[in-house]
Amino acid sequence: MKTTGGTDDQKRRAGERAAELVSDGDVVGLGTGSTAAHAIRALGQAVDDGLDLRGVPTSFDSRALAREAGIPLRSLDEVDGVDLAIDGADQVDEDLQAIKGGGAAHAREKVVDAAADRFVVVADPSKVTEALSRPVPVEVLPDAHAAVERDLTDLGGEPTLRRAERKDGPVVTDNGNLLFDCDFGVVDDPASLATGLSGLPGVVEHGLFVGLVDTVYVGTDDDVEVRRRE
């Protein structure tokens, strides 16, 4: 899984602390990324120790890691609800608004995270910022990518089609779609931008997570800082 910024120890502290929130019988959304991976491994150990839980993976990678860890898996359609979702973020601001999608899994992540009674973001200090400013991932239908690119430009963004590494061509998501990384500079009003992106024909999902995060666990060099939505 992709690892950028922060140290592995910081990420491990955040992921393992969040895993401690899971209770016996819970349905848990299993996020994607290097910090969420630590939570998945910790939950696998808890299952080995007798904890009863079911995991709902958000991507191919999280499903594979959860299987390796021995976590019983279900699809979202197979459960009545999600008690807790644990996921990473590419950036999270002081109001607990987040940008996700660096791993190209934000569409499935948002469905699972929004369905959860509690959504906890796990992060290292490099992901925490005063205001969101990273390019926003936008998943689009392949046949609509040219039209969406024009619409993103009209919204004030600078879209770049995400290219695959070690292969020719663009990144293709688990859903079979393409991705733009759209630079809007500093996002002063995430809610308004999220509404604008959602209204574009051909957009499957965007990486702005507005009003969804309940708590952020930030792993530091020797502890975990907890930030809660007021």
TrEMBL record:
KW DNA-binding (keyword) present: no
First-level EC class: isomerase
EC number: 5.3.1.6
Keyword Isomerase included in the entry's annotation: yes
Listed InterPro entries: NagB/RpiA_transferase-like (IPR037171), Ribose5P_isomerase_typA_subgr (IPR020672), Ribose5P_isomerase_type_A (IPR004788)
Highest taxon, organism lineage: Archaea
One Pfam family hit: Rib_5-P_isom_A
Catalytic activity: aldehydo-D-ribose 5-phosphate = D-ribulose 5-phosphate
Catalytic residue list: 109 (proton acceptor)
Pathway(s) where this gene product acts: Carbohydrate degradation; pentose phosphate pathway; D-ribose 5-phosphate from D-ribulose 5-phosphate (non-oxidative stage): step 1/1
GO biological process: pentose-phosphate shunt, non-oxidative branch
Binding site for substrate: 32-35, 87-90, 100-103, 127
Keywords: Isomerase
Molecular function terms, GO-annotated: ribose-5-phosphate isomerase activity
PANTHER family (UniProt xref): RIBOSE-5-PHOSPHATE ISOMERASE (PTHR11934)
Record's subunit section: Homodimer.
Known role: Catalyzes the reversible conversion of ribose-5-phosphate to ribulose 5-phosphate.
Family classification: Belongs to the ribose 5-phosphate isomerase family.
Protein name according to UniProt: Ribose-5-phosphate isomerase A
Protein source organism: Halobellus litoreus
Gene from which the chain derives: rpiA
